[in-house]
Amino acid sequence: MLIRHALPEDGPDIARLVAAAAPSFGAKGHSAGSVALVAVDAGVVVGWLEGVLDGAYTGPGAPVPPPHGYVLSLVVDAAWRRRGVGTGLLDAFVDLARGAGRRWVFLFPDEGEQVEGRVAFFEQAGFEAVADPGERWPAMGRWT
């Protein structure tokens, strides 16, 4: 498996992956300034991460001032889960954030069905819940 920056020709594979694995995401394009990474095996996209390196978590638990890395989306093909794809994509993004001088990366787990499993996955990938009183599912962050 190879993790690399997404290319324009990866668009149809990313759209297929999102439609199959996370239809609640809907069709959205990359935002200006976003970083898109893909995990590829045998020429097929099996995972995708989109994030920004100029994010700003403004909640009460941010350990350092912005800018922060911010993971916007992470999707892994169902057949490739529990094989290191998601963790590899997160690690690659954290490495990019570190290289851009960011000290901290954050994300918000999708609060839909099976949120507990997503939170557990992010914890295993080194993210910790951010102190945010009153929020059942607060942001999660990881030092770079």
Poorly predicted runs: none
- Average of per-residue pLDDT values: 89
Order of strands across the biggest sheet?
A: 1-2-3-4-5-7-6
- What is the tally of helical segments? 3
At the fourth CATH level, what is the homologous superfamily? Gcn5-related N-acetyltransferase (GNAT)
Name of the CATH class:
Alpha Beta
Task: Describe the global form.
Answer: globular
Q: Which structural class is indicated by helix and strand composition?
A: alpha+beta
Structural Rg: 15 Å
Distance between the termini: 23 Å
Biggest sheet character: 7 strands, mixed
Fold-level CATH name: Aminopeptidase
What is the total tally of β strands?
A: 7
Helix content: 25-40%
Please indicate the percent range of residues in DSSP E strands (runs of 2 or more). 25-35%
* SSE pattern: EHEEEHEHEE
Can you put this structure into words, describing what you see?
This protein is of the alpha+beta class and about 140 residues long. It has one domain (about 1-144): Gcn5-related N-acetyltransferase (GNAT) (Aminopeptidase, 3-Layer(aba) Sandwich). Helices cover about 25% and strands about 30% of the residues. The protein is built from three helices and seven strands, in the order βαβββαβαββ. The protein has helices at about 10-20, 85-100, 115-125; strands at about 1-5, 35-40, 45-55, 70-75, 105, 130, 140-144. A seven-stranded mixed sheet has the order 1-2-3-4-5-7-6. A hairpin with a 2-residue loop joins strand 2 (about 35-40) and strand 3. The longest helix is centred in the middle third of the chain and has 15 residues, at about 85-100. It is globular. The two termini are about 25 Å apart.
